Amino acid sequence: MDNVITIGEPMVVFIAEEEGELKDVNKFSKGLAGSELNVSIGLSRLGHGVSYITQLGNDPFGEYIFDCIENEINIDKKYIKKTDNYSTGFYMKSKVSKGDPSIFYYRKNSAASNIDLDFIKKIDLSNYKYLHITGITPAISEKMRDNVFTLIEKAKENGLKISFDPNIRESLWSSKIEMIETLNKIAYSSDYIIPNVKEGKILTGKNNPEDIANFYIEKGVKNVIVKLGEVGCYIRSNDTSEYLQGFKVSNVVDTVGAGDAFVAGFLSGLLSGKDLVESSSIGNAMGAITVTHKGDNEGLPTFEKLQEFIENNA
Ligand code: KDG
Q: Atom 9 of ligand 1 has which residue's CA nearest to it?
């Protein structure tokens, strides 16, 4: 039985091999990206079944992405479509020695932003436990926004729990007000909302993790996990209010993908019957492991490697 289903845009990422502005960089290495794909890879490596809904162009980038997905044995590919009509998206990522890298997207009107609603309507959700959504998917096109809300409706009809990572990408939205309204509408339909603190501030207008969480609890969201980077996370439900310390790592290489790794670890915990705090701790460990690797998902560990990290860093 598949455990999790998610929808999103996979991309090829070109990672700068030298520091400096993207326009000046001459050497790049190729990698695989896409928030929901990162989560899928994370879950797959930890041994959970996951279905990934997307559309790839019939082009070398699409073929590369498909080959990479085929290597992840627990990702089900039955909802990966291919098309001749649109191209696969890609993006560039700068190299930095401190802070977050800068990124530039080539993804307008991409294959993944053009999935037909009819295809989504035919998806059978009866075998899944969780639907995972990020705020990137409804940002890439109106079609995808409709697809996300249709999936949420279907998930509720089928008794799935919904996890939501706002993953704010302001450059993909034409209006900030529309962005906040859309992302909060998804948040209010979710069982688990997992923003980072910066996103929480933008979406709620509140200034600290407790107030951010309270905002959503008052709207009826049952579980809020505010990611705090290397510090850890803040967990809030009707019976929990707790700061959980993160794992310390000294060799931070690339922070992109750490939030997705957290979500993969968190969902893995829930799927294994762990409670909110234990699951968040697995999320913290996954995030810490990932930032010590270059790509968006290269560092995602197997279950054994994760256990080893937790034991060595407890
Ligand atoms: O969370 C990491 C993602 O941001 C990255 O893999 C690329 O999906 C991506 C995006 O849209 O930024």
A: 34
